[in-house]
Structures are given as structure tokens and as C-alpha cells.
């Protein structure tokens, strides 16, 4: 399923959620893409749960949607710019007569300019997992039209187009792609950005001890060589994570 | 039911959202706008308003609407200080002793405060409890086609103080000049409200409140949005820099499940939103779309949406 998204200008994703250093991610990781479609999907089924507590651990309900996808990736039309104003935060505790002040910054990725800034997300649906779930293909399609945010806060997006089709997975030694892929055992010809993201297989929600992987986000089309699993959609190629 | 609103508003000489100060210079919030010139990318900084600023204003209106409807608002929110039960000190004001069960913590907070029910909270203690905001706001950014005409211009002001020799301290001057950077732009932003989240637990998915209370809270959250947009009471420095202008266009969609109108920063947002909504018909979903772009004023479009929600039994 291919979903074309339009940002409202800003995508705010924290690279290190538990850090004083508020670095933002420049590109959208797979965990965020799963979270983005999980919210409308759960809404359709009437499930309002966000956090699942299991003894002393807790995770995001978005994880329940993770099994429906073999892989998800994104194509970013233009290179986002990281930007953050300096902010002074003044806190006055009126009862405790305490005054606090701090300077911080919440950077974000800006997708705003003369170019289209569109984002195209591909969700590779596992049909077997879908048939065993309570969801139908139509539910997934409606959920894609209902993606509201990529991540947190002001990262509002609108789904502009949704296309569904069959994709066959093939093994090849060479491929050309505009979509992000894991940077592992590959040779690349072309420009792009490496970004460390949470490994989606670690689950969604608690990232303090989650494994990280390195993803390559192409600028335009790049040529990739290696042992690749690929899927073709509408004449475009995506490289799957091994 | 899910409400999505796209707003375009003209604001001339405004100081709606300020960030750092450098000495006597107060800077307007800005964001980079990327332009291609002779094959090279150039950055132009344009004035902007953060979603956080708009969200704060919305929650202030929500406090007022909740209080006038006799709905509960906690002490912190009543003072327009949206700490949102962030730690034990703030939570203890609502429930003491603090329960160990996250479900009971969420229940206590939601029952005690409409703002934290609708606007979400994050209790960052053990166990951590979070509730996502039922409303979402984008940044307000200059409409792309006219973004390069947006300006951030410093305005010179002077403060005066009467001082005689005995009251003068150090190098304090009787006159002090200062600058306020003002923005001028045609802004666009998106506001979403997920009405199905109000009064329902984000842990168990079950209602925390009775149906009547949930409906009252939904109505208050809709009225707060109406009030915020129709009064232009959002952003900072309204007392001396109230923006010249107002809402020029507004579109509203009401759907059964999440759907976001195309952002008004794009010129084709109206047609695109209508075409995208048409697709929902294939899912057997009813929706409402209304726009204030010509004859209709924003208040009429918003009222239409609120009436539709009332017909549908949302409140």
C-alpha cells in the first residue's frame, strides 16, 4: 500500500527520547510509520488503548499493528532542514514561592519550501497476518486515509492519495531506489543520509534499551548493490530489511 | 467523530509568538523556507507560530468553557498553568495518596480535569502514565505561494522612567529603547479534534465518565475552538500588538474516523480536501464538509459543523 502524505511544515521526532539533548531526527523511521497508521486503525476498531501495561513493563498499543506489515519505508521528496529556536522557559510555582528558569531548544525537521515536500510511505502488508487479524484490507486502506501525524506534537500530515496493489518479493544483486533502506551489507552509488533509528523489531513504545539500526535515506534515486530483497510497486523499487 | 479544521488568517504587525531575546531585542519565532536559486538551495526565514502556542490558547478557552458549563477543572489548569499532573507534586492535588495502579491514576486525573482529559497529560513518575491529546495543532506558517512576502520587522519602542539623582541606580537610564520583532503574513494552520477520545480511558479503552458528562465535555471542547477562532484570542502580546487582519478562509470536515484536511498552506487545499473526502464514500462513511471562503463567514461554517455533530448525537 502506497500512501502519499503532505506535511504541514514541521515533523518533530526526538532522536533520544530520554535525553537532555533534544536532537531531532531528520527523516522518519519505520517505528513512526507504524505508529502513524496504528492510530486510525485502532480508531476504526473502536480500540482507544495507547499503553499496554504488563507487570512492570509497558509498551505502545501501536505494536499490535506491527505484525500486519512485512516492512515499511518512506521516500522523502526534499531534504528536510533541522531547525530549532532557543526557548527560555520560566516557571513560577505560586504556592511554593519557587522560580525556575531554563534555556532549551526543541529542534524539528522542516519540510517547507518551494518544492512539493511530499512524503510517500509504503506499507508492505503481510496478507497471511492480515487474514488472521480482525482487520480487513479495506480497514487498512481507510486507516491510511486517516493518518494524522508522523510522530508527536505539531507533526500533522494529511493523506493525499492511497494506492493498493500486489507486490512480489524478489532476490536481486542490484536495484535502484528512492526509498529508505537498512544500511547493511550494501554498496551505494548516489547521495543520501545515514540515520540511526530504533530497530522496529524491538517493539514500539519503550526505546530506552531498544536496539538501533542504521538506515540510508536517499536524496533522489540511488543505485544499491548487495544481496537484496526487493519489491516493485508502480515501477518503483523498495528494498526490504533482511 | 473526528473534526478537522484548516484556517487561513491574515496577521499584519503581530507579535503572536516570540522566542529568544537578545538584550533589548525580542525575536519573533521563525522557520526556514527553502528556495532554489540558480540551482542552489537558499534559506529564507519567515515568521511562524508554534502549535504549542495555539494549543495553549485553545486550552485556555477550554478552561473557560468548562467552568461555564460547570465541569471540573483542576487548580493548575484553572490558573492557566498547564503542568498536566506531570509529577507527584501536581498529581497529589487531585488524588492523595497516589495509587500504584496506572488505571486508577488516569481515572483520577480525567475525572478531576477536563483540560487533561481533552489535552492529554504525561505523569512522569513510577508508574509512568500518559494520555495523548485528543486535539492536534500544526504550526501556523505563511501560505507557501506568498511565503516570500512574509516579513519579520523590528519595531522600535522606548520605555521612560522618571528618576532624580537620589533614585538613580548605577547606569540605569531614564530612557530605554527596545525592539519587538513583528511578523506580517497570511498564515495557515490545521486543527484536529478526536471527539471519541474524550472521557475514555487510554489504558482500558472503557469510558471513565458517564455518557452525559462525556457529551458535555465534547460540547465544551467544540465551543472552545469556536471561541478561540471567532475572537482571535490566541498568541501573545495581544494587548499592544493585536494583529490587524483576521480569518480569511476556513474549511471544516467532520468524519467518523480520523481524516485531516489538506493544510491551508497549500493553495489547492480546498479542492484537494473535497476530492479526498469523496473517497470516503467508497468506505460507506458519512461526512460533512463546509467552507467559509466567500459568502459564508467562519462562524457560520463552524456552527454548521457543530450542528452536524449535535445531529449525529456527539453531544
From TrEMBL, chain B:
- BP GO terms, sorted: defense response to virus
Q: Which domain of life is it from?
A: Archaea
Query: Does the record bear Magnesium in its keywords?
Result: no
User: What are the UniProt keywords, alphabetically?
Assistant: Antiviral defense
* Role noted for this protein: CRISPR (clustered regularly interspaced short palindromic repeat) is an adaptive immune system that provides protection against mobile genetic elements (viruses, transposable elements and conjugative plasmids). CRISPR clusters contain spacers, sequences complementary to antecedent mobile elements, and target invading nucleic acids. CRISPR clusters are transcribed and processed into CRISPR RNA (crRNA).
Q: What is this protein called?
A: Type I-A CRISPR-associated protein Cas7/Csa2
Organism field: Thermococcus celericrescens
> Upper taxonomic classification of the species?
Archaea, Methanobacteriati, Methanobacteriota, Thermococci, Thermococcales
Amino acid at each position: 500500500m502506497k500512501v502519499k502524505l503532505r506535511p504541514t511544515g514541521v515533523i518533530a521526532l526526538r532522536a533520544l527520547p530520554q535525553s537532555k539533548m533534544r536532537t531531532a531526527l531528520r527523516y522518519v523511521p519505520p517505528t513512526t510509520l507504524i505508529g502513524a497508521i496504528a492510530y486510525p486503525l485502532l480508531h476504526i476498531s473502536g480500540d482507544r488503548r495507547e499503553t499496554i501495561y504488563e507487570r512492570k513493563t509497558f509498551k505502545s498499543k501501536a505494536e499490535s499493528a506491527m505484525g500486519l506489515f512485512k516492512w515499511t519505508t518512506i521516500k522523502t521528496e526534499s531534504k528536510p532542514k533541522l531547525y530549532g529556536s532557543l526557548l527560555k522557559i520560566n516557571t513560577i510555582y505560586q504556592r511554593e514561592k519557587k522560580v525556575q528558569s531554563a534555556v532549551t531548544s526543541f529542534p524539528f525537521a522542516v519540510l517547507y519550501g518551494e518544492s512539493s515536500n511530499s512524503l510517500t510511505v509504503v506499507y508492505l502488508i503481510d496478507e497471511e497476518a492480515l487474514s488472521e487479524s480482525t482487520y480487513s484490507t479495506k480497514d487498512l486502506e481507510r486507516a491510511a486515509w486517516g493518518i494524522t501525524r508522523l510522530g508527536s506534537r505539531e507533526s500533522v500530515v494529511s493523506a493525499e492519495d492511497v494506492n493498493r496493489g500486489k507486490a512480489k518479493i524478489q532476490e536481486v544483486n542490484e536495484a535502484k531506489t528512492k526509498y529508505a533502506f537498512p544500511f547493511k551489507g550494501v554498496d551505494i552509488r548516489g547521495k543520501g543520509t545515514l540515520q540511526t533509528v530504533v530497530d522496529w523489531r524491538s517493539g514500539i513504545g519503550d526505546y530506552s534499551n531498544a536496539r538501533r539500526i542504521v538506515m540510508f535515506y536517499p536524496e533522489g534515486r540511488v543505485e544499491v548493490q548487495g544481496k537484496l530483497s526487493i519489491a516493485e510497486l508502480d515501477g518503483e523499487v523498495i528494498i526490504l530489511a533482511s | 467523530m473526528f473534526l478537522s479544521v484548516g484556517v487561513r488568517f491574515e496577521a499584519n504587525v503581530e507579535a503572536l509568538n516570540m522566542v529568544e531575546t537578545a538584550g533589548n531585542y525580542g525575536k519573533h519565532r521563525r522557520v526556514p523556507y527553502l528556495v532554489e536559486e540558480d540551482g542552489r538551495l537558499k534559506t529564507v526565514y519567515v515568521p511562524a507560530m508554534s502549535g504549542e502556542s495555539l494549543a495553549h490558547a485553545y486550552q485556555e478557552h477550554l478552561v473557560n468553557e468548562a467552568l461555564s458549563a460547570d465541569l471540573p477543572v483542576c487548580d493548575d489548569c484553572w490558573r492557566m498553568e498547564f503542568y498536566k499532573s506531570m509529577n507527584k507534586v501536581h498529581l497529589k492535588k487531585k488524588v492523595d495518596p497516589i495509587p500504584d495502579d496506572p488505571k486508577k491514576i488516569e481515572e483520577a486525573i480525567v475525572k478531576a480535569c477536563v483540560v487533561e482529559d481533552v489535552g492529554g497529560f504525561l505523569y512522569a513518575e513510577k508508574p509512568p502514565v500518559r494520555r495523548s491529546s485528543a486535539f492536534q495543532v500544526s504550526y501556523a506558517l505563511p501560505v507557501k505561494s506568498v511565503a516570500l512576502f512574509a516579513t519579520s520587522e523590528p519595531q522600535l519602542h522606548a520605555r521612560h522612567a522618571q528618576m532624580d539623582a537620589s533614585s538613580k541606580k548605577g547606569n540605569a537610564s531614564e530612557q530605554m529603547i527596545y525592539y519587538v520583532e513583528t511578523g506580517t503574513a497570511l498564515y495557515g494552520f490545521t486543527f484536529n479534534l478526536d471527539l471519541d477520545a474524550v472521557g475514555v480511558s487510554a489504558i482500558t479503552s472503557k469510558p471513565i465518565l458517564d455518557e452525559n458528562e462525556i457529551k458535555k465535555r465534547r460540547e465544551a471542547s467544540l465551543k472552545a475552538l469556536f471561541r478561540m477562532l471567532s475572537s482571535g484570542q490566541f498568541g501573545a502580546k495581544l494587548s499592544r500588538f493585536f494583529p490587524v487582519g483576521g480569518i480569511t478562509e476556513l474549511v471544516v470536515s467532520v468524519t467518523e474516523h480520523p481524516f485531516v484536511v489538506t493544510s491551508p498552506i497549500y493553495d489547492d487545499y480546498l479542492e484537494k480536501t473535497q476530492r479526498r473526502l469523496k473517497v470516503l464514500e467508497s468506505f460507506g462513511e458519512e461526512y460533512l464538509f463546509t467552507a467559509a471562503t466567500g459568502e459564508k463567514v467562519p462562524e457560520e461554517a463552524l456552527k454548521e459543523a457543530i450542528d452536524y455533530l449535535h445531529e449525529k448525537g456527539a453531544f
